[in-house]
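Risk mitigation, structural track. In case the binding assays with fe (ii) ion fail to produce interpretable data, a predicted complex structure has been prepared as a fallback.
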Amino acid sequence: MSEKPPYTSHFPVLEAPNVVPEKFKDTWEQGVNEWGGFMKQAVEGVAKMVASGLGLDENTFTDAGRYGSHLLAPTATDLVKYGKLNTIYAGFHTDLNFLTIHGQSRYPGLHIWARNSGKKIQVKIPPGCLLVQAGKQIEWLTGGLIKAGYHEVVCTQATMDTIARREIEFPQRPLIRISSTFFWHLTPDFNLCPIPALGDEAEKRFGKQEDYGEMLVGDQVRRELGLIALMAPS
Ligand SMILES: [Fe+2]
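Fallback model:
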């Protein structure tokens, strides 16, 4: 869901082509582009509100992410195969991008950890609402004032109950958990370093913060992907 920059990027590898599943090739692109467009609009609205709330120009983050490698990434979990209690679908982690947005999944299972309590929270997204989570790029840019949120997706009792209910209510539907998550990124060529006023505020409120240093977003992404071994070493 990205926009091509008017300059030559240092990170062409991040401009990977879209994946279109063969079986859905006639309707896929239109469907995901429409949904992705709405999600992008919503998350950019949040990015503007966050900037404004932090006392910055409202376009600070959206300008920094104008040519970001934004990804709409639908993932599917086969609940016939993996519908056992406590099966981990996504282990405890934070996202490497700036903001992540998603709608309600048909099957519950997402847990988040809030900074102010340290307790695991079961996410229940009310109908018609979207959930936005902070990723590492916003943590870095705000010098730790906003921390990337830890989360995990597991098969819980609530997931099991939903499976049992849907087997009766929609016996013709496949038991597949779909999560269509939109990952909003900063521009790969943007230089990532804490905004001084925000870093100072983070220290004042939460004590000494880690030394974030300075790095191009594209290098940060490459480093993160290397750490989680999704990208072959070059
Ligand atoms: Fe995640």
